[in-house]
Specification:
This protein is mainly alpha-helical and 355 residues long. It has 3 domains: 2-49, no CATH class; 58-136; 163-316, hpI Integrase, Chain A (Orthogonal Bundle), CATH 1.10.443. 54% of the residues lie in helices and 9% in strands. The strands form 2 sheets. A 3-stranded antiparallel beta sheet has the order 1-2-3, covered by helices on one side. α6 packs antiparallel against α7 (175-187), α7 runs antiparallel to α9 and α7 (175-187) crosses α11. It is elongated.
Length: 355
């Protein structure tokens, strides 16, 4: 901040809030110094007009972010739901006037409204993303969410069904729901992936499911088991819809809600649809499938997401490490070690020389 000369012209450099301004004044250094004093006096008194792009409000950022999210995110309805809640806090507030303290107040209020710590963290993440884009778009120069402490999060809920529970669930299902549950348990597909399938996404001849638009943004192939192949083959003969699960929305709203109590999977044993994906992953691990392979099947972006299932295979891990024993026992058996060669160890250890 100050007075400087560029290309023979004297200029001034100063801030209005977070916005840095530079102006050309003329050929006189004194004139530039006087102009700077006048500008700084107005800034101090709050009478200096704010730069056009520094007056953007959170409502304006909401509008721009919504347009951006429609092209980059899948769950637009969830985005808008969260943005409306953030609007209640910051709607008409200028972006450059939103401080970390305002965000701390929002955190506290959300907790009082009954939101969990992890849920509040999702709002903080959304708000931080919005400010990062606002900086990129030239609406503001800082991200007030940075440095705001998030709530501690425990590892996510990991509920998977036992063989007996899967059997109870399938017996309690009506036919179309039984097909959907079978595919979920035997493929580990996300709900959005499964219920978004069309018949063109299935290659029954080569037993492959093509996930073209996954959560991670990467396409992948999921192989079909015998049970899944038989289920899809029968469904294709019985139905003419282009979508594989055309009644998914009503099925989840009614049949799924009624089936869980009949199967004894409510209350303490409460099961969500996503737990069917956990069931697939957990039983794959317990059957000896490796973490890297499971990562591919589940479509996880990072292996850390898959590692949450690693603790379910202690027997597999124990069996793996015992294989190292053969390295020692095999060598000892092959060498036919003599008594003399074995006796050398205590002699050397005691500092005596062998004869």
């Amino acid at each position: 901040m100050g007075v400087y000369r560029r290309n023979g012209c004297w200029c001034i450099d100063y801030y209005v809030g977070p916005k840095r301004l530079r102006e050309k004044i003329g050929n006189s250094k004194n004139m530039a110094e006087e102009a700077l004093k006048m500008r700084l006096a107005k800034v101090t008194l709050g009478t200096h007009p704010a730069p056009a792009d520094a007056t953007a409000t959170f409502a304006e950022l909401h509008r721009r972010y919504s347009e951006w999210a429609r092209d980059h995110h899948k769950e637009v309805e969830l985005e808008e739901y969260m943005l409306k809640r953030l609007d209640r806090w910051f709607g008409a507030t200028r972006l450059d006037r939103i401080t970390p303290w305002h965000i701390e107040q929002m955190k506290t209020a959300m907790r009082k409204d009954g939101l969990s710590g992890p849920r509040v963290n999702r709002y903080l993440a959304r708000l931080s993303k919005m400010f990062s884009l606002a900086i990129k778009w030239g609406l503001v120069e800082r991200n007030p969410v940075k440095g705001v402490e998030k709530y501690r999060e425990n590892p996510g809920r990991l509920r998977y069904l036992t063989h007996e529970e899967v059997a109870r669930l399938l017996l309690a299902c009506r036919p179309d729901l039984r097909d959907a549950v079978t595919v979920a348990v035997c493929t580990g597909l996300r709900k959005s992936e499964q219920f978004g399938l069309t018949w063109s996404d299935l290659d029954l001849e080569h037993r492959l499911i093509f996930i073209r638009d996954s959560k991670s943004g990467k396409a992948r192939q999921v192989p079909m088991s015998d049970r899944v192949l038989a289920t899809f083959a029968r469904m294709k003969e019985e139905r003419t819809d282009e979508v594989v699960f055309p009644s998914a929305q009503s099925m989840m709203r009614t049949a799924w809600e009624k089936t869980r109590p009949r199967a004894g999977l409510t209350g303490v044993s409460h099961v969500r649809w996503h737990d069917l994906r956990h069931t697939f992953a957990s039983h794959m691990i317990m059957a000896g499938v490796g973490i890297p392979k499971l990562q591919q099947l589940l479509g996880h972006a990072t292996i850390q997401m898959t590692m949450r299932y690693a603790h379910l295979a202690p027997e597999v891990m124990a069996d793996t490490v015992t294989r190292i024993d053969s390295l020692v026992t095999g060598q000892l058996a092959a060498q036919s070690v003599t008594n003399r060669s074995l006796d050398v160890f205590p002699l050397v250890a005691s500092g005596q020389k062998s004869k």
